[in-house]
Amino acid sequence: MSENDIRVGFIGLGDIGAPMAKRLLDWPGGLVVWDIRAEALEKFVARGAKAATSAAEVAEQCAVVSIVVVNDAQVRSVISGPDGILSTARPGTVVAVHSTISDDTAVDLARECAERGVEFVDAPISGGAAGAKEGNLAIMVGGTEAAYEKVREPFGRFAGLVVHAGEVGAGTRMKLARNLLHFVAFTAASEAQRLAEAAGLDITDLGKVVRHSDAVTGGAGAIMLRDTTAPIAADDFWLPILTHVRELGEKDLSLALAVGDRLEVPLPLARLALRGLGPGLGVGPGDIAQERG
After folding, report:
1. pLDDT digit string, tens, across residues 236-250
2. Distances (CA, A) of 48 to 10, 110, 256, 270
3. Which residues lie closer than 8 Å to 159 by C-beta, 6 or more apart?
4. Which of 80, 137, 196, 284 is 20 to 30 Å from 22 by CA-CA measure?
5. What's this model's pTM, rounded to 2 decimal places?
């Protein structure tokens, strides 16, 4: 039996889970689905999937089971509850959790699964509902190499990028690092809007400019290319490039802070960014950051 002949199960058919599971409807080994809402199951049965009545029934039939539920408690219930996956899963089954949970929960569940000979991977997703609908999610997998190889093909149906982050828990840690950037950026966007609004600008136009230019430049991800955060050596290829980024960034941050001071708009993230940009890039602070303290 080839890897793509295995039967795949999917638990949780909400706004993100449903479009992910739809990408598996033509999976060669077949698809088994379960959700607490009967109406969610009906749409899949009409298109050829098999509906289960519990998580246990999914695991009884499938070699790989994907889970997209809300939180740690629901994940634990689905896996180790009375009608959970571990009550029926055969040794060698791979259980993949796409929900964003605690990395400690991932490690605990992996231990429980291992006692039954079941492989656990934490496989959180990035890209949201839009990425799920387009089949272009990024998935960060924490687990053994063997488990990763087993899930790589089915995951490839609903993801444009599947990364093996490392051992169990590593997928979740990578997702949390990614979302740290995401929500700090949202906070920074709010700060930028306050400055623009105080300056009498149309902040919806500012939003258009940000989305357009980020689509061209790649946004913050465009500088995430080094394999270390250590200071850059004098002979390193990256030194002149990231020094130039620092110089541009410090200049623009300083100018924005001057506007904020004039308009009496607090810009705490901008001040932190001015101090931290150069060290964060590995090139140390520039003249402007040192002058402003």
Report:
1. 999 999 999 999 999
2. 14, 32, 57, 53
3. 125, 135, 136, 137, 138, 139
4. 80
5. 0.91
